[in-house]
Amino acid sequence: MKQVAIEQALQQLQQVLIGKPRVIRMALACILAKGHLLIEDLPGMGKTTLSQALAQTLGLSYQRIQFTSDMLPADILGVSIFDKQQGEFVFHPGPVFRQMILADEINRASPKTQSALLEAMAEQQITIDGITHRLPRPFFVVATQNPSEQSGTFPLPESQLDRFMMRLSIGYPAPKAELQMLKGEQQAAHDLPQCLTAMTLMQLQQQCEQVAASDALLEYILALVSGSREMAEDGGLSPRASKALLSAAKAWAFIHGRQYLLPEDVQAVFVAVAEHRLRHASQLQGEQLSLNLLNTINPIR
Predict the structure, then answer these.
(1) Contact 96, 36 (CB under 8 A)
(2) Among 92, 176, 195, 273, which residue's beta carbon has the most beta carbons within 10 A?
(3) Where do runs of H (alpha helix) occur along the chain?
C-alpha cells in the first residue's frame, strides 16, 4: 500500500517538474534517507517549485527563507525578547521551525548566517542563549544556490557542504517538456493534493533503513570511499559521506520496490552524494572524480 503511495507521489511530482523523472526520484530518495538536499542551478530552472511540490505532496509544513547578504542568524533561528509582564526573556521561534525549510539562494548569505543552520541540520535542534529547542519531526533542509561564478555569492565551506546528503542539478528541460509548460500543462505546486502524511513518511524512512545490504555491498561502498581518499589531493569522502551513500542507496532500492541492495543502487546515487564533497577546486573536478571512481572500482560479486 505504501509503495503505491510512493508511486502516486512520483507521478504527481512529475506533473509539476515535467520531463525530470530522475531528478524527482533522487530528491525523494534523499528525503526517505533522512538527508538534506542541495539544488544548484541557474535561476528559473524549477528549484523552488520542486521544494514546494515535495512539501505539498508529502504533507509537511513548509517555509521559504530568502537568504540575502544582510541576513543575520536570528532571522532564521529566532530571538529571545524580554517580556515585561512575565519579567523574563521569551523565545520567539524563527522560520526554521517547520518540517521542510527552503533555504533559497543560501550562498548569497554571509558564512556566519550560513553556519546558523549547521546544528539544525546535524541534530534537528537549535541552541539560543544556552537553551536547546527541538525542531519538528521530520525535518529537512532543501537549499538552492546559484552558480558560484555569479556575483554576490559566498561559497559554502566544506563543513556545510558535507551536511547535505545530495547535490542535484535540474538542468534545462527537453524541448517537448518545455512545450508542455508553454501550453499550460504544468500543474502548480500549491494545487497538489497531499499523498502522504508526516507520520507515514517517517514509517517509510524506517522501512528504508531495513533494506538489506550484504557484506559485499558494504565492501564496495568502502572501496569507493577509500578510493576517493587516494585520488583526491585535498581529502576524500568522510565517514559521514559513506553513511550517507549507504542510506541513499537503500532509499533508491526502496523506491524501486526492493528490500535488498544492488551495486546499481550505489552507482545510481554515488555522483549526487559524492560530487559536492570532492569539488575542492571546481564542480567539474568533483563530478569527474566521482565518475572516475565508478569507472575504476568494480563491485565485489
Answers:
(1) no
(2) 273
(3) 2-14, 21-32, 47-58, 74-77, 111-114, 118-123, 158-161, 175-182, 198-209, 215-231, 239-255, 263-274, 283-296
DSSP letters, 31-44, are HHTT--EEEE--TT
> Is residue 144 a contact partner of residue 49, using CB atoms and an 8 Å limit?
no
Question: What are all long-range contacts of 182-186, with beta carbons under 8 Å and residues at least 24 apart?
Answer: 185/18, 186/15, 186/16, 186/18
SS3 190: helix
pTM, two decimals, is: 0.89
Encode pLDDT of 256-272 as tens digits. 989 999 999 999 999 99
Assigned domain for 233 exists? yes
For residue range 33-61, what is the model confidence (pLDDT) as tens digits?
Answer: 999 999 988 777 888 888 999 999 999 99
For 114, the domain range is 2-72+99-194
